[in-house]
Design a protein that fits this description.
This protein has 309 residues and is of the alpha/beta class. It has 9 helices and 8 strands. The protein folds into 2 domains: 229 residues, Rossmann fold (3-Layer(aba) Sandwich); 65 residues. The chain is elongated and about 80 Å long.
Length: 309
């Protein structure tokens, strides 16, 4: 599974990454993550620990890629990649080769998390900060093209994360960019295969809502994993049935004589593999259902700034 983060520089992606890792390394509702590369884990731990002291990471404009394991009750559910492309690329239109590579990776992603700096939602402010482009102008067209590249039968989650909501004046979000975001949300909501989330986050000594974009991505990652295991199980079941139909005493004897596997032995081996797939489905189904129920419950809670659409 591949999760892609997009957002302009200074949108708070690096801080979110450190806070999210710290939160899920500790675990929530039985779910936790672990960095496959121990050096990555230590680097993210450092960011998360510094945030709890009010120390924020410096601005970064580099590509970062991490590999994690998603665990439930310390049992591995799946591995996933988490990639953050440098934010400056969104407005670096002279770098066509890197832009093409980035868009290709986005189109192959299983989930996208788009970061929006809520403190720069005022068009005049954001245009000055982002080389003549508002962050919504830099992101919305790209998301629309990525979303359209996925088939109607392929569920695809996009989470919109509004960072730094604690810095909003009078807790109000106004301006052209907010209206643009509303239109983009309507487009996503009307799609047959795109599933959206909007949430406001705070990262620092105290964090708010950092769990939900990650869990939204994991829900669809697990559902995709279940679909693939189901397809593999169906193929094994068909193979077992075909072998059983061709099983006979004569085949047993001729296979033994020619030192070849008989249909009976092939059916048995495939039946063993089928049972492993069934066990895997059972292990994946319960955590997935728990995550879905958790997201639905939180999205209906007025105390949280989180909306599913």
């Amino acid at each position: 599974m591949k999760v892609m983060m997009i957002g302009l520089s200074r949108a708070g992606k690096t801080s979110y990454m450190g806070a999210m890792y710290k939160r899920f390394e500790e675990g929530i509702g039985g779910f936790s993550i672990k960095a496959i590369n121990s050096e990555d884990g230590r680097a993210l731990q450092k960011i998360g620990n510094n945030l709890s002291k009010g120390i924020y990471p410096g601005n970064t404009d580099i590509r970062s890629e991490y590999k994690f394991k998603l665990l439930y009750e310390n049992s591995e559910l799946m591995e996933f990649d988490w990639t953050d492309y440098r934010g400056g690329l969104l407005v670096d239109f002279n770098n066509e080769k890197e832009l093409d590579k980035w868009e290709c990776e986005l189109q192959s992603a299983d989930a996208v998390i788009a970061f929006l700096d809520s403190s720069a939602m005022d068009r005049r402010t954001s245009v000055n900060r982002y080389s003549g482009f508002s962050q919504m102008e830099a992101i919305s067209d790209l998301i629309t093209r990525v979303a359209s590249s996925h088939s109607d039968n392929e569920a695809f989650p996009i989470s919109f994360v509004m960072t730094k909501i604690d810095a909003l004046k009078d807790n109000k979000i106004e301006g052209d960019e907010w209206e643009q975001l509303g239109e983009l949300m309507k487009d996503v909501a009307s799609s047959k295969n795109i599933h959206g989330m909007l949430t406001g986050t705070v990262v620092g000594k105290e964090c708010l809502n950092i769990e939900w974009p990650f869990l939204m991505s994991m829900v669809f990652g697990l559902k995709g994993k279940i679909a693939r295991v189901c397809a593999e199980a169906d193929a094994l079941k068909d193979r077992v049935n075909d072998c059983i139909e061709n099983t006979s005493i004569w085949d047993d004897i001729s296979s033994w004589w020619n030192d070849e596997p008989s249909y009976r032995s092939i059916a048995y081996d495939n039946a063993v593999e089928l049972q492993k797939k069934v066990n895997r489905l059972m292990a994946l189904s319960t955590p997935t259902d728990l995550l879905i129920d958790l997201l639905k419950k939180v999205s209906a809670d007025e105390d949280f700034f989180m909306h599913l659409f």
